[in-house]
Amino acid sequence: MEYLTRIYIYGGVSVKDVESSKFIKAYAEHLKRGDKFKEPSWVDIVKTGFTKELSPYDRDWYYIRAASILRRLYIRPFTGVGGFKKIYSKKNKIRVKPSHYNKGSGKIPRSILHQFEKIGIVKKTKKGTRKVTSLGRKEMDAIALKIHKETQPTKREEIDEIDELNEIIEENKETKEEEEQEQEKEKEKEN
Questions:
Q1: InterPro entries from the xrefs (predicted)?
Q2: E strand or H helix at 102
Q3: For the whole model, what pTM was predicted?
Q4: Least packed by Cβ within 10 Å: which of 2, 96, 134, 176?
Q5: Mapped to the 3 state alphabet, what secondary structure does 18-38 carry?
Q6: DSSP character at residue 104
């Protein structure tokens, strides 16, 4: 019954139906505008992993990472901090030495998940993994629906486009017929 209600309210659009980059950008803006989710004081000096030399250049990187983590948790529930360390891992290639696989930072996803737990968007399971709550799903689906409406044309717009194309085709047919008639008249005058 909950699924049917969600389809009725949100038009059947979920996070999976929207392009990931657009959703992450929109949800990061949503988090930034809200007053519940705060970035920690260490955000401007922390590296995102062992393989990195500097902290990210983008000032909003923490919100973007939070939106990315929440989207991944929506698509693949029951992921823990260790899973996110693997997801954000990278190959470490330093000079002549052979490259090694290094996991990403654990502090960043842990702090993000703790904040989401305080807000009520994510909850911890008995095994220590996390999953998105129904409140979090509703919020994410609402943003996905907003993006879907912005990117997808409405039925009326599609019908108008089809009508315009049909009018152009008819005009082209009429002009071709007129040209053919004029050519026939010219041929008759020559004969």
A1: Ribosomal_eS19, WH-like_DNA-bd_sf, WH_DNA-bd_sf
A2: strand 100-102
A3: 0.72
A4: 96
A5: CCHHHHHHHHHHHHHHCCCCC
A6: B
CA distance linking residue 104 with residue 82, whole number of Å: 9
Type of residue at 117: E
Contacts of 53 by beta carbon, 8 Å cutoff, 6+ apart: 47
Quick one: which of 51, 47, 48 has its CA closest to 100?
51
Q: Which residues, at least 6 apart from 4, have a Cβ–Cβ distance to it below 8 Å? A: none
d(CA 63, CA 69): 10
- Report how far apart, in Å, the C-alpha atoms of 143 and of each of 24, 38, 41, 59 are: 10, 20, 28, 22
* Cβ 60 vs Cβ 74: under 8 Å: no
Q: What is the mean pLDDT of residues 84-104?
A: 80
Asked if 31 contacts 55 with a C-beta cutoff of 8 angstroms, the reply is no
